[in-house]
Design goal:
Helix 1 (about 5-25) packs antiparallel against helix 2 and helix 5 packs across helix 6. By secondary structure, this protein is an all-alpha fold. The protein has helices at about 5-25, 30-40, 45-50, 55-65, 75-95, 100-110, 115-130, 140-150, 155-170, 175-180. It starts with a helix and ends with a helix. It has one domain.
Length: about 180
């Protein structure tokens, strides 16, 4: 499988994302929406990894997904919540991204890589869900146990996840995702 290492990286990240949604999002309607998003979070990237170089797939994903703030897409409140959860779960599975949402947002604001209005909006969301602090993944023993329980991620697990996504989302246009590769 092309980009197996990156598919494993993303598979584990998706599990951490869902874990953080379940842990931090308690308001019923928002929780339902975020769990729906967790089911599809970064799946476009997983599919692009099958035929594109990792860097190219990552760049295309960032350009086309509103939970990434590096693009000029229109965003909803839920997109910003997805951004916050994406930042918060990163340390659970990504050793190269050790900062939680609060610390990462502060760093981006300090570096002027994130405007103050957007940064404050993200921090407001963090305050609402109880993560506007500098705690770390190391402080979350339950999360550590969960991530450890994932064990080894295999190519079969990734293939199953991709096929499940395709079967459960017949409305997606895979041709649009795969067209980026040609």
């Amino acid at each position: 499988m092309k980009n197996l290492k990156w598919c494993i990286y993303t598979y584990r990240h998706r599990r951490a994302f869902e874990y953080c949604v379940r842990k931090y999002i308690h308001e019923p309607a928002l929780r339902e929406e975020m769990l729906r998003r967790a089911a599809v979070h970064d799946m476009d990237k997983m599919i692009m990894y099958l035929s594109m170089d990792q860097k190219e797939a990552q760049e295309m994903h960032v350009k086309t997904q509103p939970h990434h703030l590096e693009n000029d897409l229109t965003r909803t409140y839920e997109d910003y919540v997805e951004t916050v959860i994406d930042y918060e779960c990163a340390p659970y599975t990504k050793p190269d991204k050790p900062l939680n949402a609060y610390d990462f947002t502060q760093l981006l604001m300090d570096r002027k890589a994130l405007d103050e209005e957007t940064g404050n909006a993200l921090i407001s969301i963090m305050e609402d869900i109880g993560i506007a602090n500098s705690t770390t993944y190391i402080d979350d023993e339950e999360g550590q146990r969960y991530i450890s329980s994932l064990g080894e991620v295999t190519e079969e697990m990734i293939n199953k996840e991709i096929l499940t996504y395709i079967n459960e989302h017949p409305d997606i246009e895979l041709s649009n995702i795969l067209d980026y590769a040609t």
